[in-house]
Amino acid sequence: MNAFDEFYIGWQGRAPRTIGLFVRKMIIALCMSVLAFGGILAFVQHSIGIAIFEWGTHKMFTGTLRTSPYPHLSVRQPGKSAGQSDYLLVAPFKHGLDPAPIAVLDGKPVTLIGTLIFRDNETMIEALPETIKPASSNPDLPITSHESQLTNRVTLRGEIVDSKCYFGVMNPGRLTPHRGCAVRCISGGIPPVLLVQQEDRPPTTYLLVSNDGSSVNKQILDMVAEPIEITADLVQQGSLKILRANPSTYRRLKK
């Protein structure tokens, strides 16, 4: 006997035993199929990475203030190597940190209060501008040279993103769905970066500046979140990787 040998009357309280077993098996099989499909779909998806914004948590930072090409704080890494890290500085919300009021502190030890933003090896501080003050003591600061060093001429392909959102405030903070937000952030002074994806290691970001090292924020707004090829001088300034090129030479790539 099979399920179709029995007759089910809709107004009865229970279905015939064989039909009930058949329906239960089909429901269980369907649920297991949905779970298996969801697991496979999650497994094959590319990770968007772990991005952290310690919103609401303010800490004090000490380092050497640099205002060029964008405000950043040079800090000494712990350990025997005593290397140097450079943390980009931005203001709250969709604003870059105005270098003019802090220009007199350029190259000097300072303390500031801010919130950490980080993804992979990239770190940023959302600083409270009014808290940036000369350091009252002689802190253990980086001793390495911070002069810009030209490494070589490179051609890189990637996507222009706003560093604040990509480093941790938004996740993933890139691609077309984030374009509107990125344009507002970059127009507000957030440092723009070229995000270059790499198959065998974490993505790399490069600060974008003009040939003379000045800001390019206003010139690149129509190229944000698009595939771009840039041929530029690669400059190393501390731990910052910087691309110097005229934005008019940026080349759009076909999607």
Task: Give the topology, please.
Layout: H1 17-44, E1 51-53, E2 59-66, E3 72-76, E4 84-91, E5 95-96, E6 109-119, E7 122-127, E8 133-134, E9 149-162, H2 163-169, H3 179-187, E10 192-196, E11 204-209, E12 227-237, E13 240-244, E14 251-252
Parallel strand pairs: 4-7, 11-13
Antiparallel strand pairs: 1-6, 2-3, 2-6, 3-4, 4-5, 6-7, 6-8, 9-10, 9-12, 10-11, 12-13, 12-14
Structural account:
By secondary structure, this protein is of the alpha+beta class. It has two domains: about 50-135, OB fold (Dihydrolipoamide Acetyltransferase, E2P) (Beta Barrel); about 150-250, Beta Barrel (OB fold (Dihydrolipoamide Acetyltransferase, E2P)), CATH 2.40.50. It has three helices and 14 strands. The strands form two sheets. The chain has a five-stranded mixed beta barrel. Strands 9-10-11-13-12 form a five-stranded mixed barrel.
Keywords:
alpha+beta; OB fold (Dihydrolipoamide Acetyltransferase, E2P); five-stranded mixed barrel; 255 residues; 2 domains
Provide mean pLDDT, rounded.
Answer: 85
Q: Radius of gyration over alpha carbons?
A: 27 Å
Order of helices and strands: HEEEEEEEEEHHEEEEE
Distance between the termini: 59 Å
The total beta strand count reads: 14
| CATH fold assignment of the largest domain | OB fold (Dihydrolipoamide Acetyltransferase, E2P)
Class per helix and strand makeup: alpha+beta
Helix fraction bin: 10-25%
List the strand order in the largest sheet. Answer: 2-3-4-7-6
Poorly predicted runs: none
Architecture per CATH nomenclature, i.e. the level-2 architecture of the largest domain: Beta Barrel
